[in-house]
Amino acid sequence: MKTYRLIYASTAARPLGPAEFERLLMQARIYNFSEGIGGLLLRAGGQFLEVLEGPEPAVAALYARIAADPRHVAVHTLEAAAVRGPLFRAASLGFAEVEPAALGRLTAYLDPAHRRALLPQGYDEQEIIADLLLEFVELHCPHVLGQPGDGAATYPQRSQYV
Q1: Going residue by residue through the chain (162 aa), what tens digit of pLDDT does each one get?
Q2: Which of 2, 29, 103, 122 supports an S-S bond with 44, CB 3.0-4.6 Å?
Q3: Within 38-111, where are the H helices?
Q4: Helix/strand/coil percent split, the chain, to 5
């Protein structure tokens, strides 16, 4: 079965305290595991970027729930496509706090309007997106990937474009 990847950005409707956020993250991890969804959640203050990877029906259903959740505003899709395989551990939700400026730049690069303007014709958008995400994680939150050979994470290969 092919992996489906959906990347979205959103803003918190209100600030979440540390205990409330930890509870929300734990619930998300349990749900995602039960549905075979993996991915990555990045947070910078009240801004979020999430990568969801797994079976298309499960990812689409989860995203519909997220988009309708009143705790999010300005939810917008940055990518939704079938891909060769997951970038992040299957059935796990990695999490990292990142700097607002860094998350803002990543979100801007992933925005389809900007991405298409920046890429020359003939480049594989899926590979560029994967490389961009992996480079961001390696630079800003390498703990999300674990260590090669530790059994806790797969360390994805970069494409020919890097």
Answers
A1: 689 999 999 999 999 899 999 999 999 999 999 999 999 999 999 999 999 999 999 999 999 999 999 999 999 999 999 998 999 876 689 999 999 999 999 999 999 887 777 766 777 888 889 999 999 999 999 988 865 544 444 444 444 433
A2: 103
A3: 56-68, 100-110
A4: 40, 25, 30
Domain residue limits at 31: 3-144
CATH assignment at residue 73: 3.30.70.100
Main-chain phi, psi angles of 14, to 5 degrees = -155, 155
Domains identified in the chain, total number: 1
Q: Output the pTM of the full model.
A: 0.87
Extract the tokens encoding 14: 């209100």
